[in-house]
Amino acid sequence: MARKLFWISLALTPITLIAHFALGIGGTPIFALSAASLMPLAFLIGEATEQVSEHTGPGIGGFLNASFGNAPELIIALFAIGSGLPNVVRGSITGSVVSTALLVLGAAWAVGRDGEIERRSLVLQIGMVLAAVLLFLVPSIPGRHGNPDRHSLYLLTLPVAAVLLVLYLALTFRNLRRHHAAHTTPPAEASWSLRRGLVALAAATVATALMSELLVHSLASFGHALGLSEFFVAVVIVAIVGNAAEHGGAIVTARRGNANLAAEIAVSSAAQVAVFVAPVIALISFLVGRGLPLSFRPIELAAMGGAAIVVAITVADGRSRRWEGYVLMAFYAAAVISFGFAGDR
Predict the structure, then answer these.
(1) pTM of the prediction?
(2) How far is CA 320 from CA 159, 162, 244, 302, in A?
(3) Can you give the residue ranges of every domain in the chain?
(4) Cβ 52 vs Cβ 201: under 8 Å
(5) Is residue 184 very low, low, confident or very high in pLDDT (cuts 50, 70, 90)?
(6) 10 Å Cβ neighbour count for 100?
(7) Do 215 and 93 form a contact (C-beta atoms < 8 A)?
């Protein structure tokens, strides 16, 4: 019965599209519809990822989930840059790293069972997040004085973005080769074919991008009605919406006892946003608007660096524990409170 309701709920996506584009409905109703639509899509991405991982192993499965799940994040950022909202983009990058590292991983471990995780892969990816935070200091330190979006800071951002991309591609290629060599378990008989899993991932990602874009366009009035700062809306609400796929994927796999895949999904996503999505957005931002400097605020750098350190400590022993999941979520709640007090620049 639950699975039938899940498949029926996927109809919310075309209903939302018809309501917006054919009937001209916007504002709060579209916010509610698109938010509701994202939940079954997120679980579909989680289901497809777990099926793909039967063929590829948890490491590559987690990478694929992060890649498909972060596509909406990239699309949302480009729309925001085109609309002249650089602070929203930087805030959503920060919120994505912090929420996937703390909230997604914490929720997955809290609802799952204690189990073994692959420490080496996770520590490597968390190390990439810390390296990104250190490199972000190059444009961020001078960005504290004067206009944080000035062209000179964008010029400082370009070599930083290039280094991050080279780092990401090199370490990811090495990590995926090791995962592929280590995976020898054949897929279960009842699992989907690899092609079916990849097609489902791609289709769910496209639908997620459409719903996320509608949701973001209705967030401005939503945030204004509640008296929330632009920064808080970006770093908390936009980030959580943009990472709905990781939330669903990690929680679904954790509830089914696959703590390692859940950890790979969450940590891979955090690393991918910091070391791949952020520099790609910066490098191509001039195509849709002004070039985006990666000049983050101190609270953003502290949140990303602190989240990486906390996760590194929890994965260092190579095991996941439910109580550690609650601790990670508590750290995320503390970050959200600090974001609320930070306000805009």
Answers:
(1) 0.82
(2) 37, 34, 22, 25
(3) 2-342
(4) yes
(5) low
(6) 33
(7) no
